[in-house]
Amino acid sequence: MQLGARLRRLREAKGISREDAGWAIRASESKISRMELGRVGFKDRDVDDLLTLYSVTDLTERAMLATLAREANQPGWWHRYGDLLPTWFQYYLDLESAASLIRAYEIQFVPGLLQTEEYARAVIGIGFGGSGNHEVERRVELRMARKQVLDRPDAPRVWAVIDEAVLCRPIGGAQVLRGQIEALAEISELPSVRLQVVPFRSGGHAAAGGAFSILRFPDQELPDVVYLEHLTSAFYLDKREDVDRYAAAVGRLFIEADPPDRTRDVLHRALRDL
């Protein structure tokens, strides 16, 4: 994504259209668009030809961009689970690993990054219970590996809002839910995590349409991306008007939910009610 954004800036600075850039590398305008959004791999020859077209002559800059291209083509840590993951979700894992801020709203389950192993196993069993124990365990392993992003020195900030129903739904049974809520109480104390609960008493609210996540990246030139997951696919929205609508919705959720400093009290009350 960083390389794509840099190539887009270089192209626009020269006033070159995507169509002309595509012609220079024997490709279509849509491929240039996908390259600039970081949604395809990069061939060394294509990057080299584009840099020549954009009049990038500084050898240090060309070498730096070539290095970015090689890094972009390296498989993610999750490639060993590639047989389990559809392409649309592999793209999400790529975004999640690169994000500096993840804002999420969930109405049914605890967000994946905050799930305990037992809770994750129960959630995955609901969707993939017919796949066999081995596959379920590999999916649980993958979900636990995702959480390592929170242990990085440059961990993304996570601001999650969950519906109070999540704390009442006994996924995996009461003991599994209890362990998950206790874990949420601990996780909410991390400096990089902010957790809020939308109480039942709030009635309807801005995000009643369903769960979503908004990911922001360190490069200011990269647009925020809204992620909407469905049963068999997902949508990725990065148009300004779409992102603004979801950003406004999550902003209202932050106001309508109980404030973060009350989250532990809400979680402890949920534990008492189990």
Summarize the structure.
The chain is of the alpha/beta class and 274 residues long. It is built from 11 helices and 6 strands.
What does this structure look like?
This protein is of the alpha/beta class and 274 residues long. It has two domains: 2-72, 434 Repressor (Amino-terminal Domain); 80-114 and 149-273, Endonuclease Chain A (Endonuclease, Chain A, 2-Layer Sandwich). The protein is 48% helix and 12% strand. The protein has eleven helices and six strands. The chain has helices spanning 2-13, 18-24, 29-36, 44-53, 59-72, 87-98, 117-128, 133-146, 174-187, 240-256, 263-273, and strands spanning 101-106, 157-163, 193-198, 212-216, 225-229, 234-237. The protein has a six-stranded mixed sheet, sandwiched between helices. A hairpin with a 4-residue loop joins strand 5 and strand 6. Helix 4 packs antiparallel against helix 5 (59-72), helix 7 packs across helix 8 (133-146) and helix 9 (174-187) runs antiparallel to helix 11. The longest helix is centred in the C-terminal third of the chain and has 17 residues, at 240-256. It is elongated and about 65 Å long. 26% of the residues are buried. The mean pLDDT is 91.
Describe how the helices and strands are arranged.
Blueprint: H1 2-13, H2 18-24, H3 29-36, H4 44-53, H5 59-72, H6 87-98, E1 101-106, H7 117-128, H8 133-146, E2 157-163, H9 174-187, E3 193-198, E4 212-216, E5 225-229, E6 234-237, H10 240-256, H11 263-273
Parallel strand pairs: 1-2, 2-3
Antiparallel strand pairs: 1-4, 4-5, 5-6
Helix pairs in contact: 2-3, 4-5, 7-8, 9-11
